[in-house]
Design brief:
single chain; alpha/beta; 33% helix; globular; 12 helices; Lipocalin; Rossmann fold
Length: 477
């Protein structure tokens, strides 16, 4: 269910630097590369520098398939390169060697890490053939929405409109972790690809950045549902969108958000990708074990790791308040659970204790542990299309689709038919062969493949969405 970047072991995320100021000293233009060692892992870091009237600096993290990420400030003075990312409390300071071939310095973000950058490397380029490129046969409109008190924009997004009157409006809801409007991950832009396909077929599509990060860090799944309803209210006033069906497309946690929205204020249809039907505790246990085994752990090692993690999940799930969850987790870890869990998961005990409490007891995670998809699914009021990947290691496809069908069609879910090629219907469930959580064609389903795969989303998934939407609109509206 969660974005792979959100796992505790991968909370250390790298971003970049944009522009800046004073220029002096030796020339550092070019592409530099080095290895950053964090918690036993080694990450390749690439830094592009261009000196002109201003100093342009861009940071790449090729191992995470993150490139050309803009940020805040950079300076070069007396052969010392500095840059800072204020929003992430991250910075770098390094001195250029006399021969101009390396920059020796320190990267800081929640700690200090030595990082030496070497000259003469080539910048990696990724091929993403499905990413739409202009000119488009449709229009784009930027739409921002103020927060309830009108003090600032808390939703910003792109509305794509077909050249002909729109058949319906589809609002895209991203998965867990902060996401931009394209749901960018590993240099893929799934929501941009989906919006392009749907709009070419005659649908208006709105995709949006998640809440500002300062707000997002204290927001919950329930808040995300409120945001969607505020988007609906705003777009309902758009002259071209009045009196047409409005539906939701939710990926991963976004599926749960869609269920909640429909339970509060019914929509006309829902599409889910990698959608959920189990409580988060079950999803995380499946995810932990499946990904561990895909990464080479034995079944015994994966089971042990999952068992230790589940002890922490149980504490949060059973606690009546966030404060109680934090108190009980702290006591458990201090009694020795932290040493056992750290050994099982390969963490430093002090890092684990702080990270586990801050992460699992955050407002978002605590709320998620107390939201069961079952009652929301049982009370859905609209046509429903579930699309899950057969090799999804983040959400168990078979179990999720079975439960969806059981909750939505309790009288018929035991009747045998294939989830792979079932006919289009009011409620349609599909498991896509050889597809992962992003609905890419894959070999194992491991998140490690996401960036290696050039395909952003299987074309048959895009075709299924438009075919089903056309079927629903022709038969039920």
């Amino acid at each position: 269910m969660s974005n792979p970047h959100q796992h505790i072991k991968h909370l250390f995320t790298l971003f970049v630097v944009l522009f800046a100021s004073t220029l002096s000293g030796q020339n550092v233009s070019g592409y530099w590369e080095g290895q950053l060692k964090v918690m036993g892992d080694s990450l390749t870091i690439g830094v592009f520098v261009e000196q002109g009237d201003t100093l342009l600096v861009e940071l790449d993290s090729p191992d995470q398939y993150a490139f050309q990420i803009p940020a805040t400030l950079a300076t070069l003075k007396d052969s010392v390169l500095k840059w800072t990312i204020a929003s992430l409390a991250a910075s770098y300071e390094g001195k250029l060697s006399k021969d101009g071939q390396r920059i020796e310095g320190t990267f800081k973000q929640g700690g200090s890490f030595p990082l030496t950058l070497y000259a003469g490397h080539s910048r990696k380029k990724l091929n993403r053939p499905q990413e739409p490129k202009p000119p488009y046969p449709y229009s784009e409109e930027e739409i921002s929405i103020k927060e309830p008190q009108g003090r600032y924009d808390y939703v910003t997004g792109t509305l794509t409109m077909p050249a002909t009157p729109a058949k319906a409006l589809v609002i895209l809801i991203s998965g867990s972790g902060w996401q931009d409007r394209d749901e960018s991950i590993f240099a893929h832009k799934p929501f941009k690809v989906i919006a392009d396909a749907l709009t070419r077929d005659g649908y208006a599509v709105y995709r949006y950045d998640d809440l500002p990060k300062a707000v997002f860090q204290n927001a919950t799944t329930l808040d995300f549902a409120d945001v969607v309803n505020r988007i609906r209210d705003t777009l309902s006033q758009h002259p071209a969108l009045r009196h047409i069906p409005v539906g939701l497309l939710g990926h991963s946690e976004g599926s749960l958000v869609a269920y909640i929205v429909d339970n509060k204020r019914p929509v006309d249809f829902i599409i889910t990708m990698g959608g959920v039907a189990q409580p988060i505790r079950q999803i995380l246990c499946y995810q932990n074990a499946a990904i561990a085994m895909a990464n080479g752990y034995t079944c015994e090692e994966a089971t042990q790791s999952t068992t230790e993690s589940d002890r922490l999940y149980a504490i949060v799930e059973k606690a009546p308040t966030r404060e109680k969850a934090m108190e009980r987790m702290r006591k458990y870890l201090e009694r020795g659970g932290v040493r056992r869990t750290a050994k099982s998961l390969g963490f430093n005990p002090n890092q684990l204790q702080h990270q586990a409490i801050q992460t699992l007891c955050s407002p978002w995670f605590y709320t998620l542990f107390h939201l069961d998809p079952k009652p929301y699914l049982q009370h859905l009021s609209c046509p429903f299309l579930a699309i899950n990947g057969q090799l999804d290691l983040q959400v168990e496809a078979g179990q999720s689709v079975r439960l969806m069908r059981q909750y939505l069609d309790p009288k018929s879910y035991k009747n045998p038919y294939s989830f792979y090629d079932a006919p289009l219907a009011y409620h349609t469930y599909r498991i896509i062969p050889s597809a992962n959580h992003l609905l890419q064609t894959c070999k194992t389903g491991s998140p490690n493949e996401y960036g290696e795969i050039e395909e952003t989303i299987k074309p048959e998934v895009l075709q299924l969405m438009t075919d089903w939407l056309n079927h629903i609109l022709n038969h039920y509206y």
